[in-house]
Amino acid sequence: MKKIIVTFTILCFFLCPIYAKNTFEQNGELWKDLSADPDQERGKLAKLMYVRGIYDGIAFSGEKDLKKMFYIEGEGKKFYGNLIEALDEFYSDYRNINISVIQALVIISAELRGAKKEKIEELKEETRKMNLEKATIK
Known about the structure:
Layout: H1 2-20, H2 28-35, H3 40-61, H4 64-69, H5 76-91, H6 101-112, H7 117-137
């Protein structure tokens, strides 16, 4: 019981800065921050919890249109592991760093559903431009 309480406390302390940011600041910088922990397992767990939280929110929202935007074909560790790998790859391109995690998941979902490469690149470019404009307005 004590181990569970300590683990929960550590996770809450580690994840609190995530909740303090608004949605559009939860972008590639945040994703990379989750990986910055020297303890690689804790970084993987943080990413898993983050993506799982997004997908749990989608599942509980009951919004059919929202569910259509995200790839939901799968369950469990392998499904989330694949999404995390896809996000890591997505943010390895410096041009995607200002794209929010949710927008990145929409793009990745389109790719996983089999959208044409040209369509994916067009979606990325539109999203980059939109986020660049938001970044310059601040």
